[in-house]
Structures
1.
Amino acid sequence: MSADQITFREFLLSQRSQHKLDKDLIFLMEDIATSCRIISHQIRGGAFAGRLGATTSTNVQGETQKQLDVIANDVFVRHCSNCGRVAALVSEEVDEVYWLKDKPEAGDYLVYFDPLDGSSNLDVNLSVGSIFSISQLPTAIDATDDRSVLRVGAEQISAGYSVYGPSTALVITTGNGVHGFTHQQGTGEFRLTFPDMTILEATSEFAINASRYTLWDQPVKRYFDECIRGKDGPREKTFNMRWTASMVAEVHRILIRGGVFLYPRDAGNNADGGKLRLMYEANPMALIVEQAGGFASTGIERILDVQPNSHHQRVPVILGSKEEVAVLERYHRES
Ligand SMILES: O=P(O)(O)OC[C@H]1O[C@](O)(COP(=O)(O)O)[C@@H](O)[C@@H]1O
Ligand SMILES: [Mg+2]
Ligand SMILES: [Mg+2]
């Protein structure tokens, strides 16, 4: 371990002095790191403790909840409630907004999270993760009004995700670049192993669930067909494809070696507006991708500019290497 692999706390304290981070934000981010550490432990021991498999309950998305979805949600709620500046929590696994304060003040935090992302991978031992986003209330509000959590993505003050894969990683931004940490067995510390992560502008690797091909709109079909035609096609280069069914794993791969990830709105999810959720999947990942020099779009507009109309709203997602996202936006404009 080299000396510069500083701990998560040391890193946040250095960001505090450089970028005037609020001390309460540091405490909250440490509570989130603790949640990820505990969830990582719960997942890795899942098979022994009978924590794999589904519950009998469904969440607001109409999905059957995995046992670990519920466990991870409870861990986030317990730890994020420690910080006295948190006004409300919004979780993928819970219908209503969790208000922690009756009279929230200006500047209080709003924490949005997907406690377990890629949960269909759990029982087959593939990578999953957690995603979080933090915004602030612009003004004090007299009563707990759910509309006040509908903040535009560009207002986020911090976002991040963890991946529970071969190792446990935690990747964050506070608006000052993107930095990745790896969980160190033994000490339990998250140590800085990927400082200043950046996304390659050009790539020849894309990720999409190709089994939905017949459901796609023309711009996405055109993009996919051209990638598949490779060197002999209009793109004149060979493309590789990946699909892990876990957004966190896709985004982590893109931060490390570039690429583009798509979950478009299609004939199958059109009524819902898409598959992935704006407030705790698309927005945090869009902030991270943009902070790393990539771009995130619905195909039509920048994800961070989407005005939310519900805290479980879904949107089309196209994110990653700038050049490929630009091609896809152009195909949407031309269609
Ligand atoms: O089942 P599909 O179509 O492959 O969808 C996979 C996508 O759904 C998700 O699993 C949705 O997230 P959750 O597991 O948190 O519900 C994404 O992580 C992933 O990109
Ligand atoms: Mg998810
Ligand atoms: Mg989830």
2.
Amino acid sequence: MSETASTARAPVALLPSLAPLLHEWLPRRRWFAGKGKPVTGFALVSATELLPLSAAGPGLLHLLVRVQQPGPVTSSAPPGDCYQLLLGVCDTLPPRLSPALIGHVTRGPLAGRTVYEALQDPRLAALLLERLRSPGAIGPLSFHRTVAVPDGLTPRVLDAEQSNTSLVYGDAYILKIFRRIHPGANPDLELPLALARAGCARVPAPVAWFEAGTGPDGATLGVLQPYLRGSRDGWRLALDALAGGRDFVPEAHALGRATAEVHTALARALPTVTLARRQARDLAVAMSRRLDAATQAVPALMPYVPGLRAAFETVAALAEGGSTWRAQRVHGDLHLGQALRTPDGEWAVIDFEGEPSKPLAERRRPQPAVRDVAGILRSFDYAAHSHHPWHPEWAERCRDAYCSGYAEASGRDPRDEQALLRAYETDKAVYEVVYEARHRPDWLRVPMAAVRRLASPPGADPASPLSGRALSGRPGLSPDRRS
Ligand SMILES: Nc1ncnc2c1ncn2[C@@H]1O[C@H](COP(=O)(O)OP(=O)(O)O)[C@@H](O)[C@H]1O
Ligand SMILES: O=P(O)(O)O[C@H]1O[C@H](CO)[C@@H](O[C@H]2O[C@H](CO)[C@@H](O)[C@H](O)[C@H]2O)[C@H](O)[C@H]1O
């Protein structure tokens, strides 16, 4: 992804004319990561006409735009986040598309025209699939596929817009359009491709994708995968179970097995490393730094900092004492919403992007597999907390079943890496506090409750993997097992 404004047919002068509209529209998107800071300007990274803007019908404009906001400037990266935008450009917006309106352009080459969210327009969304069906380059964009994709599939945009935007085509394929673009291969393409090659059927295999630029700087822009029709995500299923007063033990056990299968396949397909003293200490330091940054962003964390930090210090101390841990490529943001139960009762895992707020290099680094385990354990806690009254024992049974399933399928029980598991749970809860404060303030109480528990000494925390209660029958486990 070259930083010099590489344009393909679309005039560079477009951006100044669009800037006033983007100024209003962009910060209100769910996927806009720079909320709370003013937007001071835009810089064009690339502009590509996927359908000519001069035609009688709507045009389709693909933009990569860097959004300038106040903040620390690093010498290695240009300032501001880069976003992918797909804009429809027309003379008169049909009433059915009025919710997609971005605004009317008053100056520059598009003066008098209307700009709207192209992905909401089935004609333009269909055109994007057409581009993916025929591999090749258009300006700085290149389109790739592994198998033939049928044509004539009707598109619909998923309304549960999260970190990105997804389109479903004919209930057969789902196209994820990444919003915040980083140079380099996105793990949401890299890992499913590697898993497909390794024969792991737990993850839908990419069938097509598109990217900007080439080589190590090439950025993944979108990935097309089979759509698992009729599947339900683990979060919904867990909430249903809670609402019906049902256990989720068999499902949690099966999900533990599925997670272990994915981890085993990733460890076979991609490099693994051993985290020795320095790396493990760096990991604990990074967690500690994230805690500091989170406390600056959400001062309510302040009273719990010493207790939370203790979890990271335990890992650092174990490393100093010679403990080592195995690290491999992991999911990186695993929670119940990323696990889909298909109609045949199997768990599939989606969304390997990792935490979108972290730099790509960090997300692609080998990490201990318990990091993902901690993500799911946090999710059981979230589910139990969203039901009143809180059911800690429901979450506890899920946690045990999940870890048992994982151990059965992998031969490695995550509870044997208890200090690391607790550190990752703590790190995740801290991340969640910031995430909820930014995106869903009503939910802040959920990770804050976990923070209060995790900040207390391990034995005093009933939901902790370190407590005698959660580890019934495994009381003597103290330092992590060495790999
Ligand atoms: N292969 C798939 N089959 C069925 N539904 C899917 C598939 N991939 C994603 N989804 C649905 O789309 C939603 C968003 O996908 P996800 O990859 O989590 O995007 P985001 O990064 O925006 O969170 C998921 O919550 C899930 O409901
Ligand atoms: O799905 P994303 O990759 O966008 O992940 C982000 O959003 C998630 C919420 O949608 C958030 O997950 C948190 O809330 C979930 C319940 O809605 C819960 O199951 C997770 O355990 C909890 O972390 C995730 O952290 C965030 O990165």
